Amino acid sequence: xxxxxxxxxxxxxxxxxxxxxxxxxxxxxxxxxxxxxxxxxxxxxxxxxxxxxxxxxxxxxxxxxxxxxxxxxxxxxxxxxxxxxxxxxxxxxxxxxxxxxxxxxxxxxxxxxxxxxxxxxxxxxxxxxxxxxxxxxxxxxxxxxxxxxxxxxxxxxxxxxxxxxxxxxxxxxxxxxxxxxxxxxxxxxxxxxxxxxxxxxxxxxxxxxxxxxxxxxxxxxxxxxxxxxxxxxxxxxxxxxxxxxxxxxxxxxxxxxxxxxxxxxxxxxxxxxxxxxxxxxxxxxxxxxxxxxxxxxxxxxxxxxxxxxxxxxxxxxxxxxxxxxxxxxxxxxxxxxxxxxxxxxxxx
Length: 348
Hints:
By secondary structure, the protein is of the alpha/beta class. It has 13 helices and nine strands. Helix 11 links the parallel strand 8 and strand 9 (266-271).
């Protein structure tokens, strides 16, 4: 059974928690010899999968995803978040209002509804990944405000139907879904959708999970960190993910992933505590705990930044030295019939 470990996103060039100067060179210049540095190529020398965040903020484009295929090893997989219009219509409306202030009203509400054109655009954008066997899974990440109601369950079923020819994982955050676990599993299992197992700060309304796989095809886990203090109140969104798991904390998830590996065909484990490349450090620690090979070189800056937890697992190699390739198993291509778009009951 295949196990893939990576991070959520690979490009964090700005903010207090940027990766430049830690995992990547601090600057891009001819003088420093980093003018042509390719972050994705470098990332793919260390991990065999990545979870793409950019497709949440904008529809994927075929020319971009084709470039991803060309810049990574043939056995590298991409899991992609669904476009925010599919799961966060309120966020979509808010973004539209910023671009066109004063546009509130029925027309904006209509534009926030998912259409067949939206579905076709997403499918077209990920086609280079699907046809090359490089698509891991699609991630439908719903907000904590998306509660279990008849309308929500209907919308979820419709969304899973239109994408049921791809492996799809669903992240639910409100406790109402785990309170009605039998009904939730009925919807997910009907479409062979993996229930995303998450670790994050727990609040009164937070979902409760047992970390067990619900389908035999694949398992999907996301570690967001445990920065409860800054989860809802922070100066910048990135502050929420400023958390480094200890080896002891990670061991629980390594044990779970190891057990799940024996129950499913493929497992994906992504670290989303991306502030200051802490997700990179924790992903490597997980690989070490699970006996997975530690590939590539890791800049000493990661140690200098205070990531003492990783000192026994990260091989410190200078950037100019040789790098090793990544080896893993790629997925088979899946044929995709055309499906209609979901309608009423869209999440808020």
